[in-house]
Amino acid sequence: MSRTASIEIFYNNNIDFVCFIDKLISSEWSCNDYGKIRYIIGEDFEWESDILENFKDVINKMEAEYFKDKIVAINFLYKNSIGGNFIFFNRNEVVLNLNINRKTLINGVNTDFSFYIKALNNILTTDCYINCIEIP
User: Fold this and answer.
1) What is the pLDDT of residue 61?
2) What integer pLDDT is reported at residue 1 of this predicted model?
3) In DSSP terms, which residues pair with 82 in a beta bridge?
4) How many Cα atoms sit within 13 Å of 72 on the Cβ side?
5) How far apart (Å, rounded) are the C-alpha atoms in residues 116 and 80?
């Protein structure tokens, strides 16, 4: 049986897109999604990919669209193995879809949200709240 899991992060203040990405990278998250950068710009949810060497260009393009209030998303892996899509719905809300090698509890079924919370510690601030969701 497949499960869907995500973590919604809501901030009271606007998210600095580039700072958010930099904090992820400094916390052992990587946009190296099996040799590519995978991202979305816009509400069509059409995934694009680019080579890793173009990371700065991709982030700059995403940031420009983010400031135009467009939905942007990018795949990140924690310690190069577990991760998902960070979707920026607006300047105050980020959703992490846990869809790349989802970490589970010892029962092998339920999502280990504590693992992800620890991995996201660098981006969780006192002005945000989180909502962990798992749907069987």
Assistant:
1) 97
2) 54
3) 78
4) 20
5) 14
